[in-house]
Structures are given as C-alpha cells and as structure tokens.
Amino acid sequence: MTIQHTALITGASSGLGAEFARQLASEGHQLVLVARRLDRLEDLIAELQQKYPQRMEAIRCDLAEVGATAELMDEIASRELSIDILINNAGYTPRDVFSQQTSHVVQAQLQVMVNALTELCHAVLPHMTEKQWGRIINVSSIVAFAPPGRGTLYSAIKQYVFTFSQSLDMDVRRVGVRVTALCPGLTHTEFHDAMDVADKAKKIPEILWTDAPFVVREGWKAVNSGQPVCTPGILNNVLAFVSKRLPERVRYALGTQNPLE
Predict the structure, then answer these.
(1) Which of 11, 119, 165, 180 could form a disulfide with 69 if both were Cys (CB 3.0 to 4.6 A apart)?
(2) What is the dihedral of CA 226, 85, 138, 119, to 10 degrees?
(3) Catalytic residue check, 92
(4) Taking the C-alpha atoms of 119, 225, 133 and 30 in order, what is their torsion angle to the nearest 10 degrees?
(5) How much of the chain exceeds pLDDT 70, in percent?
(6) How far is residue 136's CA from residue 142's CA, in Å, rounded to a whole number?
(7) Around Cβ 2, how many Cβ atoms within 10 Å?
C-alpha cells in the first residue's frame, strides 16, 4: 500500500505538471498545485476530485516575482501542510533570441527556472531530512546533453538544473531523500504552442516525440529507485550519449541548426 505524502507541483496548470498531478493523485498523495493560472488549477482539481478523495490545494503564484517562493512556502505553512514530494516543473523559453530580449524577460527566466527552483529545494529539505524521506524531481531537458542553442538561456539553465540536481542528490541521499534530474526530449504538451512554434514542431518526425504520461511515469519511477538522472525513451538516451561525445567544434556547428527557429 502506498503511504500518503504531500506533493508540491509547480507549473501544474498544463503539460508535465498536470500529468504529475494526475499520476500522483492516483497513488493517493495529497497535492499542492502551483501556477499563474488559478482557474486552470481549480479545473484540474475538480477533475481529479471526481476520482480521488484526498486533499488538494490550488495556489496562484508567479514564480518570476522576486520573493515569490518565500510567500508560497508561507502560504503552504498557513494551510498546515508540509511538503514530502517536490516537482519543480515550471519553465518556459521566450521566442526571441537572447540579444533581442528585454532585461525583464531575461530576469524572469532566471527567477523561474534557476532561483525559484533552487529556493524551493532548499525550503523543503528541512522537513524531508527530519522525516528521513523525500522525493525531488527537477525538470531539466535533453538539451542539457545537446549542443548549446543559438541565442537562448534555456539550454544553459537546463544544464544548471541537471548538474545541481545531481549535486543535491549526492548531499541528501544519505538521509533518505532522493533527487532526480528529469531530462525529457520532445514531448507532446502545450510547450511549443506557448513558444508559438507549434507549426514547425509538427514537421519534426513523430519517432522523436514522447508523450507526457510516459515521461512522468519514467521520472517518478527513477526518483523512487534512486536514479539521479532520467532521460525517458531509448532514442533520447542514444541521442544524449552520442551528443556528449561529439567534438566541441561539431557541437557548436549543430547548435546553430534549430528546427524550431
């Protein structure tokens, strides 16, 4: 029988975040769902509570705002909840290349995908280490293995998430906490619609794609089995293996070729 824990999921209004909510709810875990779109969170909870009776909370939070993570954790504490499972899923990438982005857009990316992710890991660890049990999944990307993308912070940020997650796992696994960097490849979600590149994404061969339920199942299985890195799908594993072993000159050249541009 699965022990009931409380899971905090960021970016839970759609995509992988919503799928994590569905799969963790099916195991009986309580949910704290976080995103900017409160109506989407409430709709998801209404859907889930038709099947599952456990407690589920929706919190509107814009992680791009400085100080948002502290406010979020205060709100969770005010609801008398402690976090046993953290899914750091919130993330995005602007359509414009770095040189054309405003300073506000640059800062927002760093705040959501670096600062907030790191701060939330730090905030939940005292409870996890006290209980000597915890699970953290930080959503990185296969781009952590791939050549750097032209004019984007995204690949650099996801490499940070990849490395930080492994370092954190080395630190806390001795007290029963497991951390996994989940590195999906192309996945059928709303991500490419939000980037306004859905039409270009459709031209990429279907064999290169995975779906959200598969990615989430693999990530959850990986963290529970103590794997610090999870790259869902055989083809993605092959691509990651090959990419890391290419000469830097070749990686640089490939990085200038983005099928989504």
Answers:
(1) 119
(2) -130
(3) no
(4) 80
(5) 87
(6) 18
(7) 9
Task: Give the CA radius of gyration of the chain.
Answer: 18
Residue 198 pLDDT: 46
What's the CA dihedral at 55, 62, 35, 177 to 10 degrees? Answer: -60
Contacts of 107 (CB under 8 A, 6+ apart): 64
Cα 47 to Cα 25, 53, 58: the distances in Å are 11, 11, 13
In single-letter form, the type of residue at position 233 comes to G
Domain made up of 6-255: CATH architecture: 3-Layer(aba) Sandwich (3.40)
Report residue 247: phi and psi, to 5°: -60, 150
- What is the residue type of 133? W
Residue 101 CA, chain-centre distance (Å), reads 23
Cβ 61 vs Cβ 161: under 8 Å: no
Tokens of 197: 């590149």
Report the alpha-carbon distance of residue 121 to residue 78 in Å, rounded: 19
Question: For residue 217, what are its two tokens?
Answer: 């199942």
161 within 8 A of 138, measured Cβ to Cβ: yes
Domain boundaries, the chain: 6-255
Query: Do the Cβ atoms of 17 and 90 come closer than 8 Å?
Result: yes
Annotated catalytic residue: which of 52, 92, 154, 252? 154
Encode pLDDT of 28-62 as tens digits: 999 999 999 999 999 999 999 999 999 999 999 99
